[in-house]
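User: Quick sanity check before I run a bigger batch. Here is a single chain. Can you write out its predicted 3D structure?
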Amino acid sequence: MAANSPSVTSGVYAVIDTSAGKIVAELFPSSAPKTVANFVDLANAGFFNNLVWHRIVGGFVIQTGDPQTKNGGGDRRRWGTGGSEKTVPLEVSDTSRRNDIGSLGMARSQNPNSGSSQFYINLADNAPLNGQYTVFGKVITGLDVAKAIGGLAVDPSGQPVAPAKAMVTSIAIRSTP
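Assistant: Done. Predicted structure follows.
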């Protein structure tokens, strides 16, 4: 973690700048410490800069964090299959946060302990996802921006037709919103 980044034990916020506007999320280090620490480290390293929201399912989720989508390039058939070098375990318990509208969840493969860099924002209450994916944050401002991204035109695989309209330009970690 960078020396100037806030502690991942309290007051951690992600300012997600996108091509559609700004989304601010409060992160939950007390309920998902490993996931939040990984997300903060990746954000501070610029990992998420200029990645595409590569999975857009209106009324369900928007998902980003695949480095293969950098600048909207790469092989679109591979979008959604990449991640960072580090994985984090599934962090769920009886007190886990829920996949409610606006919550941030860590995407993963079939292996529950394969979370890496891909994350999603719930555009609806998605109770069937509870206990299956680590919820590590909640949008506090900019849910309208997330919903606007969720309304973009997509191809049959859920990828944006115009990737430039579905970019994460940067994610900054702050100690205040």
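The longest strand covers residues 167-174.

User: Great, the batch can go ahead then.
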